[in-house]
Amino acid sequence: MSNPVISSDKVEGTTVYASNGDKLGSIDDLIIDKRSGQVRYAALEFGGFLGVGTDRYPVPWAMLKYDTNLDGYVVPLSEKQLEGAPRYAQNEEPSYDDSYGRRVYDYYGVGW
Prior knowledge:
The mean pLDDT is 88. The protein has helices at residues 8-11, 79-83, 98-108, and strands at residues 15-18, 23-32, 39-46, 55-60, 65-67, 72-75, 88-89. Strands 5-6-1-2-3-4-7 form a 7-stranded mixed β-sheet. It is built from 3 helices and 7 strands, in the order αββββββαβα.
């Protein structure tokens, strides 16, 4: 990797794959902690058809690993695991408060 940083507009739209190589969706948005400046979640666009009815799934950023061969991010999740995950509609957005964050991190088994 020639450059260790990337602009958020280049991350948005990047494909996300399951560990087995299946395409899960793409990154719609990054959720950044205002105090620490760290990316807390990638809002994964998953489901629906041609963007219609597509929900957003906040996935803890630390779960995503960039794969240069796929030119996308890989998460240790399956489509079935995402189906039961915390999510919200495209025209809605959760408060992303600590309570919500704990629920998301607990679902994925990641420490808060």
